[in-house]
Amino acid sequence: MGFALSDIKLTSPAFTDGGMIPTKHTGEGEDVSPALAWSNVPEGTRSFAIICHDPDAPLVSPNGTYGFVHWVLYNIPASTTSLAEGTGEYTAGVNDFGKTGYGGPMPPNGHGEHRYYFWILALNDDSQLEAGLTLWELLKRIEPKVIGMNRLVGVYRRD
Question: The whole model's pTM is what?
Answer without folding.
Answer: 0.93
